[in-house]
Amino acid sequence: MCGIVGIWSKNSIETQEKQTDIILYKQHHRGPDNQSKFSIDDLTLGHNRLAIIDLNQNANQPFISNCGRYTIVFNGEIYNYIELKKDLDYAFKTSSDTEVLLASYIKYGEKCIENFNGMFAFAIYDKKEKTLFCARDRIGKKPFVYSEHHSGFYFASELSALFSIGVF
Question: ∠ at Cα 76 (71, 78), nearest 5°?
Fold first, then answer.
């Protein structure tokens, strides 16, 4: 289990990062192995990590693609990531399913989720297009709660964590 958070808003980056820290603190039990955040453009992404597949710190999130264009936060497990990895023309730096998920998105776009066998919730930011793609597994095994507010778009792995920033 991990925790993800994202804030894309009109607020300052400093405000977004403070709100992200609050959410990450509230979700700490979801991933005690690492807690990180990354801000780019008008977006802050955060992650609570429970290291299972690749224990190396290079697999910490938010995870940035080799080209620097894409950033991902991911909660879950892609069971068939080893098989998927064989079909991807990508210079992998880790042995994580996170990087395979990101490389799949780079190759297939939004249709990548059709190839995933697993449980997942994730968000990928494309800094060139300034778009955020969010997805959750078909059954909803991994939570993804979100809200659109007049100040922006907010998501997290837990509703109580999302409410803790006081914008709702």
Answer: 90
